[in-house]
Amino acid sequence: MADKKNIFDKIGDAFSNRDEKAAEEAKVEAARKEAVAKAQAATEKMQKEAEARSAERARVAANEKAAAEAAEQAKLAAQKANATQQRIQGEFAEKQAQRASEFKQKQADEAAEAAKYIKHTWTNEDTYASLAFKHYGSIKEPYWRLIYEYNKDIIGNHPNNIKTGTEIVIPPLPAELEKKDN
């Protein structure tokens, strides 16, 4: 059977189909544009989130790097402080040892100096000359006078005023008397 539509009906159908098709295509195009816009928005959102995560990772990495550098600087500062402290302690110990050595030397010098001075208690048999001979090997006046002059503050202004039991000191012989011929 043949289609009984006339040409005008067919043209009308074609136009009406065309309008419907155009409307349908417009809807599809609008839906496609909307989907593309949504996809672009989602892509942009994902990119922003990825950039934010990347920036956060970079910030964390920078903080970790700064913390590691600070820790390294603190470690170096501590090592330097330890080295300085050890140096100071070494210098202190060295100075203490030196002071102790100087103190011992001073004590030894004082003991040696004190040993040069002999204490003697005056007896009835003593004379300045006998003491000078006993300690210096000579009875001449400079030798016995040395003993008297050294003890003058104890004896007084006259050598014969010395009393039995008086403690006197026999001083060391000065260099100028050592050179003299006994």
Question: Can you give me a brief rundown of this structure?
Answer:
The protein is mainly α and 182 residues long. The chain contains five helices and two strands. The protein has a two-stranded antiparallel ribbon with strand order 1-2.
Descriptive tags:
mainly alpha; 2 domains
What does this structure look like?
The chain has two domains: 1-115; 117-179, no CATH class. The mean pLDDT is 88. It is built from five helices and two strands, in the order αβαααβα. The chain has helices at 7-116, 128-136, 141-150, 152-155, 175-179; strands spanning 118-121, 167-170. The chain has a two-stranded antiparallel ribbon with strand order 1-2. Helix 2 packs across helix 3. It is mostly helical and 182 residues long.
Task: Give the helix level as a range of percent.
Answer: over 70%
Instruction: State the distance separating the first and last CA atoms.
Output: 178 Å
H-E order? HEHHHEH
Mean pLDDT: 88
Number of helices: 5
Write down the oligomeric state.
single chain
Structural class by secondary-structure content: mainly alpha
Beta-strand percent range: under 5%
Q: Topology, please?
A:
Layout: H1 7-116, E1 118-121, H2 128-136, H3 141-150, H4 152-155, E2 167-170, H5 175-179
Antiparallel strand pairs: 1-2
Helix pairs in contact: 2-3
